[in-house]
């Protein structure tokens, strides 16, 4: 037995100690972690001996639920910021003779922006070039889906549109990862 086969068998024996009913939930929890996401969680599940379809579905659901929470929180935060700015502009526009010593958030000088990371720069280029569908599908190559969805919603993209395309991206990438690892284990490693 090769070292890789031995490693996989040992991991599967370790996972076998967890009740079979809990294994998909563990895969779901792993999928909610940024940078592991649905792809990594389905790979972990298949390596652990979970049926590939169950591992893929559980990973996709776990990742999508996390993205859903991020989209809802980001949407509420964006709405609060936009409403606050609109209220501040309304106060200054309607005040006429407002005292000069009031310190409004928009009256202060903006802080210098931090330089964008390479992943964010790549994501921005894809968003400009391919729109929300392309940025959602290609986004996991640069940054996690949770961050991608937060950036899209914070930029003003509709929640439903973001959720639709993030769901499509999660299904695509999780399926590719699950089928690839299953094929590698079945035909290459022989486990």
Based on Cα principal axes, name the global outline: elongated
Instruction: Report the count of strand segments.
Output: 0
Helical residue percent?
over 70%
Low-confidence stretches: none
What is the CA–CA distance across the termini? 10 Å
- Total helical elements: 7
Q: How would you spell out the order of helices and strands?
A: HHHHHHH
Largest sheet: none
- Please, what is the average pLDDT? 85
Gyration radius from CA atoms, angstroms = 22 Å
State which percent range the strand residues make up: under 5%
Domain count, please report it. Answer: 1
User: What structural category arises from helix and sheet content?
Assistant: mainly alpha
What are the salient characteristics of this protein?
elongated, mainly alpha, 191 residues, 7 helices
Summarize, please:
By secondary structure, this protein is mainly alpha-helical. The protein contains seven helices and no strands. The model has no long low-confidence stretch (mean pLDDT 85).
Structure description:
With 191 residues, this protein is mostly helical. It has one domain (3-87, 117-189). Helices cover 73% and strands 0% of the residues. It has 7 helices and no strands. The chain has helices at 3-15, 23-31, 37-47, 52-95, 118-138, 145-154, 159-189. The longest helix has 44 residues, at 52-95. The termini are close together.
């Amino acid at each position: 037995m090769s070292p890789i086969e031995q490693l996989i068998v040992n991991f599967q024996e370790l996972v076998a100690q967890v009740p079979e009913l809990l294994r998909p939930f563990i895969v779901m929890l792993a999928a909610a972690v940024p940078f592991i996401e649905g792809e990594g969680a389905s790979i972990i599940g298949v390596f652990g001996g979970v049926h590939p379809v169950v591992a893929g579905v559980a990973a996709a659901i776990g990742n999508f639920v996390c993205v859903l929470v991020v989209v809802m929180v980001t949407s509420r935060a964006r709405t609060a910021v936009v409403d606050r700015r609109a209220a501040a502009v309304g106060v200054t526009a309607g005040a006429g003779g407002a005292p000069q010593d009031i310190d409004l958030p928009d009256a202060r000088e903006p802080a210098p922006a931090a330089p964008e990371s390479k992943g964010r720069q790549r994501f921005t280029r894809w968003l400009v070039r391919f729109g929300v569908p392309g940025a959602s599908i290609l986004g996991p190559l640069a940054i996690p889906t949770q961050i991608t969805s937060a950036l899209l919603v914070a930029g003003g993209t509709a929640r439903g549109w973001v959720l639709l395309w993030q769901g499509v991206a999660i299904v695509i990438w999780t399926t590719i990862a699950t089928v690839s690892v299953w094929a590698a284990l079945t035909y290459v490693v022989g486990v």
